[in-house]
Amino acid sequence: MKEFIEFIAKHLVDNPGNVSIDEARPDDKTIELTLKVGAEDVGKVIGKQGKTAQAMRTLLTAIAAKEGKRAILKILD
To answer: What 3-state class would DSSP assign to 8?
Structure first.
């Protein structure tokens, strides 16, 4: 899941070297991913009215559901 979100984010931004993802597991059913991008690329990852971010969250939720888990995506400014 982490690699999937990283792949999407790196193709959306101008500076893919600034993309990093931290993964945390608060419990064994939940995966929390925190996406960090450069300040100039935050708007590209979030998209107009948050539609790009929502699409990434939807895809992540579908992948996690296949494994019987819950996934949370946080995008840091």
So the answer is: helix
CA 24 to chain centre: 13
Neighbours of 29 (CB within 10 A): 11
Distance CA 34, CA 45 (A): 13
Note the pLDDT of residue 66.
95
Residue 11 has which token pair? 């193709």
Residue (of 74, 55, 75) closest to 31 by Cα position: 74
25 has a pLDDT exceeding 90:
yes
In this prediction the pTM is: 0.89
